[in-house]
# Entry
Amino acid sequence: LIEQEFVSVQVLRKAHAWQPDYYYLGDWVTFESIGLTLTVEEIYDRVDNADMNEFRQEKLLSE
# Structure
């Protein structure tokens, strides 16, 4: 599940008894069933919300 209003990715896995794992900016998420690993930043790349706008500003200032 990927939130639209704020940055949060929730992954439920059968191997973990369907207990949710939460991922936020700075985390890597592995989707084991398709062999894909992405950063949360990559997942939210084209999303325009307050969390991502603040993250992008901070990233620009630190460069």
